[in-house]
Amino acid sequence: MIPQDSSASQNTESPTAKIHTRPWAATLILIGGTILLVLSMALSVSFGAASIKLGVVWEAIFNFNPDINQHQIIWEIRLPRILGGAMVGACFAVAGAIMQGMTRNPLADSGLLGLNAGAGFALAICFAFFPGLSYMYIIMYCFLGAGLGVLLVYGFGAASKSGLTPLRLVLAGAAVTAMLSAFSEGIALYYRVGQDIAFWTAGGVAGTKWSQLEIMFPWVVLALIGGLIISRSITLLSLGEEIAMGLGQRTGLIKLVGLVVVLILAGTAVSIVGAVGFVGLIIPHLTRKLVGVDYRWIIPCSAVLGSLLIVFADLAARMINPPYEMPIGALVALIGVPFFLYLARKERRAL
User: Looking at residue 30, what is its pLDDT?
Assistant: First the structure.
């Protein structure tokens, strides 16, 4: 018998076996982060223009009495607000993680690549031309608007002779975002619907209602499950399209499914909270530093950390200058802009 060459056997090792990952860190984030998220949500429900003791919050949740004013405040105003913020944070973070994995672009984010602006443009059209439209149709329009933003960004970015580099994609996204935002503002001024969409453009969850969450929840759950199903394929794509194709992956189909998932997540989030950027940029990078490059861990951990970011940002927005509130988008941008400039500096050679 001829002995097998050990070097040849090593070369045939699957690339997935070499993926650097930290399951213990991911498990700690999922368990500890979920516990911290529940505690932060309880704290956020307790604080506000009228402070409510945690014992009253517990009683309102598990023994609701509609005759008690504080119970009404908790159920009708604060609980949907906090739950909506948690879902929005998960949506933006997972959308950013999937985009970065599929495109191998560390600067990819639903806000930077025109999805949020496209969804906001669709919102402006809804308020101007279809007043009184049900929330289900508003979400559908946001999906279409986000899709329009993606098509414009990739169309402009791919038109360059040097190809679609990471920074060129971001520059195209910035241009499309500015254009769609200008169109949205023009529609708002001409049709006098500026007050109706001001809440969304500021970025906040104060007006979230249970009826919105009932419609939003199934979409978000289905999109998150879809992201988890294709997570292994996204890991292979993040290693390189040639490697993924060599392992028999249908990269075109995976990219299409991933894009649909991102459109659902970004469109749903913008329909609730507005064009809050940088969540999908910061959280996936932080998650990869903590758990490694396996998207089977990155996606669920990003959902938990994204929820934590928005819940704490919403709490800070109410506590900085009570009884007034700051826009969540402004608070997140204070962290996101320096982080984006740092990443752009690292990627300057790609120009």
Answer: 95
